[in-house]
Amino acid sequence: MDRVVLITGASRGIGLATAVAFASAGDSVVATMRDTAQSGPLKAAAAAAGVRVEVAELDVVSDESVEKAFADLVAAYGRIDVLVCNAGTGTHGTLEELTIEDLQRSLEVNYLGVARTTKAALPLMREAARGHLIAVTSVAGFLGQPFQDAYCAAKHAVEGMYEALAPVAAKLGIHTCIVEPGPVATDFSIRSATATGTVDAIEPLKARYRETMAQGSGRAQSPEGVAEVILAIADDEDPPLRKQTSKFTSILAAKKLVDLSGRSVVEFTSSWLST
Fold this sequence. Notes:
Elements: E1 4-7, H1 13-24, E2 28-33, H2 40-49, E3 54-57, H3 63-77, E4 82-85, E5 91-92, H4 100-128, E6 131-136, H5 149-171, E7 174-180, H6 188-191, E8 193-194, H7 203-215, H8 223-235, E9 242-244, H9 247-257, H10 263-270
Parallel strand pairs: 1-2, 1-4, 2-3, 4-6, 5-8, 6-7, 7-9
Helix pairs in contact: 1-2, 1-8, 3-4, 4-5
């Protein structure tokens, strides 16, 4: 029996690649996005792969949109086997530059958006006593990074929520997994918002941060590489709570886990701001 898979944020990048990967595996894929007018690249990629994906509207910040998307899913398929929470938005800026609205927007999309869609999937999976809940966070889900305060806060919140949910879900037959990519070759950073506030004393640090990130761009993983990891998790009947998608990301995770004081992490990320 093929699986019924719903993916959020599927118009580009990791979401697009994941939709094509599941469809290529023979699954029924509902690829959702806030604006279905942006589905051209996904449809082209699916056609090139010789597979079919269903495109549906789902805005993760809207209760009504999530409810409708899941009602349509149940009407069409009667169940959901895999949920991939991938929709997200970035905001560049350190806390002094960010507005409260910037922080709220990041939480609304990156954290509460995952909560909404996961809440909608849980009753269906509980009744079936099976399913995979997969949340795409990032290295930002476990490692605070300069000028990513809003994004890291929201992604950390997702990881805390899924870690708390995991033992309860497991008792109900539901697998819970957090996927942690590092740099990925997409336009996500370019599309991210920038804090409107500026602080002159911070500008040199920000410039150095941008230089460091540009120097590390060669490590970027392909969206298809991340999609392969997500597909493997859905195939796994005993997936881990956390899965890094590259050796580089695993090294960063280990750096944090072995140091209870947090000093090594701060020293590491501080080096990104040094000349």
